[in-house]
Write a structure and sequence with these properties.
Layout (H helix, E strand, L loop, with lengths): L2 E8 L2 H16 L2 E4 L3 H13 L8 E2 L11 E4 L10 E4 L13 E7 L2 H16 L4 E5 L5
Parallel strand pairs: 1-6, 1-7, 2-4, 2-5, 3-4, 5-6
Helix pairs in contact: 1-2
């Protein structure tokens, strides 16, 4: 069963996303990131080129010519095919394909709209019997 971690009260979601991606890549070798839209995909893509400053995280969009050889995919498409161990969800809804991943990381930004969407996702997973872990990020950003 998929292990689900919620990161709540996140002031800088993309910055934390980059940290989670780096750690998941080191530990598991493959990561998929579901973003809510093309603008977020582009912003996260740019951030991963800049941060961390002394390393590189090999990433691309799903339609890239090198996607088959790239361990980190960032895209807003609601289906992320191919093997991967970790899924990072930045979307407001639960990904329809989350259960095929070993781990799912859910980021919940600190604003009201994202908190409400995060609570709905939390209920969705809990009602289906998933074991949920919560990490309060309010004092870490």
């Amino acid at each position: 069963m998929t292990q689900i971690d919620f990161y709540t009260h996140v002031a800088q979601p993309l910055k934390l996303a980059a940290k989670i991606i780096a750690k998941a890549y080191r530990m598991h070798g493959s990561v998929r990131v579901l973003t809510p839209d093309a603008d977020t995909t582009q912003a996260l893509d740019r951030l991963l080129w800049l941060d961390p400053p002394l390393s590189f995280l090999p990433h691309c969009r799903m339609d890239s010519a090198v996607a088959a050889e790239t361990p980190i995919w960032i895209d807003e498409r609601l289906e992320h095919a191919g093997p991967a161990a970790v899924l990072l969800n930045l979307h407001a809804e639960p990904p329809p394909f989350f259960s095929r991943f070993e781990r799912l990381a859910e980021l919940v930004a600190a604003d009201e709209r994202n908190v409400a969407a995060g609570r709905a996702r939390f209920r969705f997973y809990r009602e289906r019997g998933y074991d949920l872990r919560q990490h309060d990020w309010s004092s870490r950003d």
